[in-house]
Amino acid sequence: MAYSDKVLDHYENPRNVGTLDTKESNVGTGMVGAPACGDVMRLQIQVNDEGVIEDAKFKTYGCGSAIASSSLLTEWVKGKTLEEAQQIKNTEIAEELALPPVKVHCSVLAEDAIKAAVDDYAAKQNQDKE
Amino acid sequence: MKLPIYMDYSATAPVDPRVAEKMCGYLAPDGVFGNPASRSHQFGWAADDAVEQARRDVAALINADPKEIVWTSGATESDNLAIKGAAHFYQKRGRHIVTCKTEHKAVLDTCRQLEREGFEVTYLDPEPNGLIDLKKLEVALRDDTILVSIMHVNNEIGVIQDIPAIGELTRGRKILFHVDAAQSAGKVPLDMGVMKVDLLSMSGHKIYAPKGIGALYVRRKPRVRLEAQMHGGGHERGMRSGTLPTHQIVGMGEAFRIAGEEMPQENDRIRSLRNRLWDGLKSMEEVYLNGDLDQRVAGNLNVSFAFVEGESLIMALKDIAVSSGSACTSASLEPSYVLRALGREDELAHSSIRFTIGRFTTEEEVDYVSELVRTQVTRLRELSPLWDMFKEGVDLKSVQWAAH
After folding, report:
1. Rounded to an integer, what distance in angstroms lies between the CA atom of residue B82 and that of residue B147?
2. Which of A25, B16, B239, B397 suits B332 as a labelling partner, its CA being 20 to 30 A distant?
3. Measured between alpha carbons, how far is B84 from B61 in angstroms, rounded to an integer?
4. What is the SS3 assignment for B160?
């Protein structure tokens, strides 16, 4: 399958690969997908006091499109508020990376990942308040 | 060493230059371009001579009578002709067929078609090493079984089935035995004088002949009858009509002749390259060989690299031509049905790479591939959350994954 230059760039030079400390209260972790399906994404966000995402890291098991979708996502969410980050749509990712129809599910997974990470962060904040 | 490196010989092989050169003599005006079916002039006679020489060469490789060889367009057509042709001809005797889940699609889809026509098909599960348990095969045979179709060498994992033993089982019960030998003819010895095989499919392009030519062996003693699938001028004793492609047939004959002469030395060389590659890869952690190592064709190495997805690995190996059992390399998004039939977890099926080595593979290429695979698997594992979890001691099977 022929990949777009953007997918190849993210695949060969993935941005923001790594791990944040899951235990920190200002870190939200979203892990989506399943090994049996051939892709698992782990997206982590670090949120400052103003509710802005100041750092993001990912690790992905999956095809080139899945790796590129998560790499792009980390670039996009940095500097965004939680609310803005949640507005990111899979169609925007698919369009930016010119994903073919058979690979659109990779962008859906990326959208699920940021939602899961924000939910995890919110759940931690609520716990702290209790 | 030239890049990219070709290690996908089970998909197809280049034409051997000796074969290509010979074929060139059967195309142009100053060559033997006649129609082998033309009986009225020497253009036809010369072409017919060439076709019959090739028929003898193909027959010789499998120790058959040249009259038992029917030319086809390739192994897919041979499989179709053998299975549908026998099923249709013998359907009054019974309508039950036995095959295996790891067969090539040319066999499986042909069987599916027969099911739509009212035949009943039993699909055997292979053992985890890819081989068929003969006791399970024996149990599957019924009074109305007319045909057993089992491949000799599997195209994905390279395992070699025990064809002589299966032939003893089927012949004893007067059941026809078809063998898809697309991946084995010219690579594993075949002897129709000894093996109780009734129908045998062969391919040209897997053994350095061109694509678009194949053959079907149809036993004469005891005689096997087939209903033709292609009707027309009655070529090939009515079993397969259509003008014979002389140059293609000459190519296949020459390729089979060369294979017959060089098989023992060539297999030794290829096997040692394959083992060199496996030695280079198996020292990594969490690397699994798919299919039996001993009952295996010389050139095949099918390996799963756990926690790395196959398609992303293929992307990383862009200077190497290999194939993957990963879902992402197929249009269906299903991982390899062959690996699943072995009971391999989907995770490992997604992580599999098939390396197939052939006549023109060099030691230098093997070493390059070995080194590149090690580097890239390591890089992709560093990107993999599953590898992190594995290293932290998390049992991935205990995790509740949200399947999508």
Report:
1. 10
2. B397
3. 26
4. strand
Using CA atoms, how far apart are residues B184 and B186, in angstroms rounded to an integer?
A: 6
Q: Any CB–CB contact under 8 A between B326 and chain A? A: yes
Among A4, A13, A17, A37, pick the best mutation site for testing chain B contact (most B Cβ within 10 A). A37
Residues on chain B touching A67 (C-beta within 8 angstroms): 312, 383
B259 touches B213 (CB < 8 A): no
**Contact at CB, B328 and A63, closer than 8 angstroms:** yes
Of B396 and B321, the one with more pLDDT:
B321
- Helix residue ranges, H only, chain A: 5-12, 64-77, 82-86, 90-97, 104-129
Judged by a CB distance cut-off of 8 A, whether residue B397 touches chain A is no
Residue B180 confidence (pLDDT) above 60: yes
ipTM of this complex: 0.92
| B33 SS3 class | coil
Q: Which tokens belong to B41?
A: 């002039």
Residue that has been written with the tokens 């095809």 in this structure: A63
- Contact (CB<8Å) A34/B345: no
Residue B222 preceded by cis peptide, ω within 30: yes
Q: pLDDT at position A126, please?
A: 86
pLDDT in tens, B231-246: 999 999 999 999 999 9
Q: Which helix (H) or strand (E) holds B217?
A: strand B214-218
Spatial CB neighbours of B358, under 8 Å, sequence gap ≥ 6: B6, B9, B13, B270, B299
Question: Could you tell me the two tokens for B249?
Answer: 């047939």
Contact A14, A71 (CB under 8 A): yes
Structure tokens at B231: 């009707």
pLDDT of residue B332: 59
Structure tokens at B210: 């061109």
Q: pLDDT digits over B95-107, tens only?
A: 999 999 999 999 9
Whether the CB-CB separation of B376 and A33 falls below 8 Å is answered with: no
Strands B320-321 and B5-6: parallel
Chain centroid to CA B122: how far?
A: 21
Place of tokens 């750092």: A55
Are B386 and A61 in contact (CB < 8 Å)?
yes
Q: List the catalytic residue out of B24, B100, B111, B328.
A: B328
